[in-house]
Amino acid sequence: MLAILLALVFAAVELLPGDAATATSERGESAADIAARRHLLGLDRPVWERFWDWMAGLFTGDLGVSARGEKITQMLADPFPNTLLLAALAFVLTAVASVALGCWAAARPGRLIDRVIGHASTSAFAIPEFVVSVGLLMLLSLWTGWLPAVTVAGADGRPATWTMLITPVLALVIPQTGWNTTIVRGALADQAATPHVEAAHLDGLPVRRVIWRHALPGAVPAIATGLATSTGMLLGGTVVVETLFNYPGIGSVLASAVSTRDTPLIAGVVVCAGTAISLVLLTADLVRARVLGSHA
């Protein structure tokens, strides 16, 4: 899947107007200079040859060089861990909040709190990250001044203070919590109709215990799958969120690479993000297999 995605990246950039040679050219350069740079970057070769050569280097950990001659592995060494930190924090908070809200709603099926959480979850997921980001920026930074409006990187390339992480993380957490709360609530509703959960209710056990001890374990496969699919949305949302909050992650790197038609750099970002997503999806599959296997 990752190889197919990378092939589509090379093809998509090839279809964009212009190329890296013209995008990185200086004012006053002649057509001969641009043609020489195009030859130096290998842009005069067929796209499938460039893709094959880049993939061959990928197996040795070589992501190639950018259109400006910089090693891509070095360019991503600092921003990618920052993006992983942002996405990991958002992932953990999303998991905790969605399970808590889903269980709260499931404990009172059909009541006011169940309806409120259901409507709020749908609304939260329907709002794009950039709208959430702008709203948080206005509320928490411009109007109240509680949190920094932008992220300032320290000498080590990381955010200077932990408070600079709060608003970007919240901008990612709110939409994905809405999505995953719906999944948790639906999974618990399915479990409520199973014989062992119905038997627990008939035995007079407290609702909270029935949910946590009997319904939630059976809902784990569906919840794990929902959270795993959120990983791609979280990493995709970081591109917008990082740009708005000036966060030192791969979002700004990717935006710059697209503007300069820097195919190897775009592919390098896709490899890093795609590998992280694939690992999370694999973990979710293993969790599903273990839980379903133990129940079998």
Q: What key phrases describe this protein's structure?
A:
296 residues; mainly alpha; MetI-like fold; 2 domains; 13 helices; elongated
Question: Would you spell out the secondary-structure blueprint of this structure?
Answer:
Blueprint: H1 2-15, H2 20-23, H3 31-40, H4 47-58, H5 72-77, H6 79-106, H7 112-126, H8 129-143, H9 166-192, H10 195-202, H11 207-244, H12 250-259, H13 263-295
Structure, described:
This protein has 296 residues and is mostly helical. It has 2 domains: 2-72, no CATH class; 79-247, Orthogonal Bundle (MetI-like fold), CATH 1.10.3720. It has 13 helices and no strands. The protein has helices spanning 2-15, 20-23, 31-40, 47-58, 72-77, 79-106, 112-126, 129-143, 166-192, 195-202, 207-244, 250-259, 263-295. Helix 6 packs antiparallel against helix 7 (112-126), helix 10 packs across helix 11 and helix 11 packs across helix 12. The longest helix is centred in the C-terminal third of the chain and has 38 residues, at 207-244.
